[in-house]
Amino acid sequence: MKYVIGVDLGTSAVKLLLVNQNGDVVQEVSKDYPLIQKKTGYSEQNPIVWVDQTVAGLSDLLNNFDGSREDIEGISFSGQMHGLVLLDENNEVLRHAILWNDTRTTAQCQEIYDVIGEDRLLEITKNPALEGFTLPKLLWVKEHEPEIFAKAKKFVLPKDYLRYKLTGELHMEYSDAAGTLLLNVSEKAWSKEICELLDIDTGICPILVDSHEEVGKITSQVAGATGLSASTRVFAGAADNACGAIGSGILADGKTLCSIGTSGVVLSYESSNDKDFQGKVHYFNHGAPNAYYTMGVTLAAGYSLSWFKDVFAKDESFEELVGEVGSVPAGSNGLLFTPYVVGERTPHADAAIRGSFIGMDSSHQRKDFVRAVMEGITFSLNESIAIFRENGKNIDTIVSTGGGAKNENWLQMQADIFDAKIVKLSSEQGPGMGAAMLAAYGCGWFDTLADCADAFLEVTREFHPNRENVERYRKLFGVYQDVYGRTKELNEKLAEFRK
Ligand SMILES: Nc1ncnc2c1ncn2[C@@H]1O[C@H](COP(=O)(O)OP(=O)(O)O)[C@@H](O)[C@H]1O
Ligand SMILES: O=C(CO)[C@@H](O)[C@H](O)COP(=O)(O)O
Fold first, then answer.
1. 81 labelled binding-site residue
2. Do the Cβ atoms of 335 and 360 come closer than 8 Å?
3. Which one of 19, 122, 354, 397 is most buried, by most CB atoms within 10 A?
4. ipTM of this model?
5. Is 240 a catalytic residue?
6. Is the pTM of this model over 0.90?
7. Residue 342 and residue 42: Cα distance in Å, rounded?
8. Domains with residue ranges and CATH for the chain
9. GO terms for molecular function, please (predicted)?
10. CA of residue 311 to ligand 2 center, whole Å
11. Strands 264-270 and 256-260
12. Which of 258, 263, 303, 384 has the most ligand 2 atoms within 8 A of CB, as the residue to mutate?
């Protein structure tokens, strides 16, 4: 039997899947790492820790593998998007990576609009200037850490750095490059115009490759440290959301994905590169050849629940925390939560907004709060679905993945709030599976990624909307949508009191 490995370099952990030629996940290993948050709005990680934890995870995986290591034919990667990793002339890391959920760059987003112009930026990159994207981070370092910027010879994204340390070869691929705000998305080329206007040397941009392209082999040093064979073929991989789409079979028009990980995402396949969503949702290159996807993002989806758990139930597991929500009626007995604990992206690109519990009542118990958090996250994702529907997309079936898909009450809640059928696959680890599928396709096991999806992916359950709850949630969604406008100014006044 032959195998491939999918590595998902997430925000909370790196997750490794060993997958056989039938698509069975025969081993899963996870190694976590912390966020470094020195100030409100800051979010960083040490790239060296990503590499160390991946090597440790691969070593565990190989230790428990009883086949021949040569049978592991390929490895590929899914990575948290947008994070800025700056490298010097020897490809050594110059500072901690500034992550996708770091929102310190509001001024740099304005600078991009002032210099490039909002319409021109949208024409080239298909996306607006958002704090989470890579270009504003690059400009922040240029302005605030000029001595570091002067030494920077290349920038890459998180999984590109990891892949470089495993192979010695430095590349970036299109699906992740699309989230930098430096790529001409439809031409699939770095934008000289944006670089020149913002005084960025185009030499800092790495060579671009396709997601399924073979970029090298495992170095002998990494082979020694992990037990992998040095003949293991390494494929470029894709952005975590592009990989999540591949790993959930979102490979044709009309297919939609909802992923609740640290962030939350609603994503829809696009075969064309010329639709106009006016920058209301992201528009990126897919990891599947010559395809695209549109996507709305909730910055703190699973993160809102993990924040609540850390503050109020530190010693409990997620299973214990969410265990009682099934006994709370839809609408959490009148308690409503907005998940803006680190600001928001879709539909409100607003780094200053913060979350609220509205309607607290002395009869509320902890389980009402937990359900309200889950509902608030899901309402936020429903805002992206509403934008897709307003733009003519038909959304009646949604594949749900990520840590949030582990809980069946949450899956039913998604069916009721989205008013769509929710499909659960045998593995909720879409991005890791997508990475493994890119390696399987790259190794030539299948003619297309869609053939691979047919062979590898299995639907285990479906959740259908409950009409009574759909109506309750339709009313509550209107109230939810009102909260942003009514709390915006209050939050701006509170900003000076934050850490
Ligand atoms: N059993 C569970 N029930 C509900 N939600 C869960 C459960 N386990 C994890 N989660 C949610 O999933 C999130 C982690 O999702 P994951 O896809 O692993 O994240 P990432 O890829 O961003 O690291 C947690 O923050 C939590 O909110
Ligand atoms: O910023 C985005 C997408 O634009 C995030 O989706 C990141 O890509 C991180 O994802 P997770 O760690 O939540 O999977």
1. yes
2. yes
3. 19
4. 0.96
5. yes
6. yes
7. 9
8. 3-241 (3.30.420.40)
9. ATP binding; D-xylulokinase activity
10. 23
11. antiparallel
12. 263
User: What's the token pair of residue 338?
Assistant: 């907005």
Ligand nearest to the CA of 260: 1
Is 437 one of the annotated binding-site residues?
A: no
* From 102, 176, 210, 240, active-site residue: 240
Which of 8, 9, 11, 32 has the most ligand 2 atoms within 8 A of CB, as the residue to mutate? 11
Ligand 2 and 304: CB distance under 6 A: no
The set of residues, in sequence order, having a beta carbon less than 8 Å from that of 158 and lying 6+ positions away, is 9, 45, 47, 50, 79, 80, 83, 85, 97
From first to last of its 499 residues, the chain has per-residue pLDDT tens of: 999 999 999 999 999 999 999 999 999 999 999 999 999 899 999 999 999 999 999 999 999 999 999 999 999 999 999 999 999 999 999 999 999 999 999 999 999 999 999 999 999 999 999 999 999 999 999 999 999 999 999 999 999 999 999 999 999 999 999 999 999 999 999 999 999 999 999 999 999 999 999 999 999 999 999 999 999 999 999 999 999 999 999 999 999 999 999 899 999 999 998 888 888 999 999 999 999 999 999 999 999 999 999 999 999 999 999 999 999 999 999 999 999 999 999 999 999 999 999 999 999 999 999 999 999 999 999 999 999 999 999 999 999 999 999 999 999 999 999 999 999 999 888 999 999 999 999 999 999 999 999 999 999 999 999 999 999 999 999 999 999 999 999 999 999 998 8
CA 349 to centroid of ligand 1, rounded, Å: 23
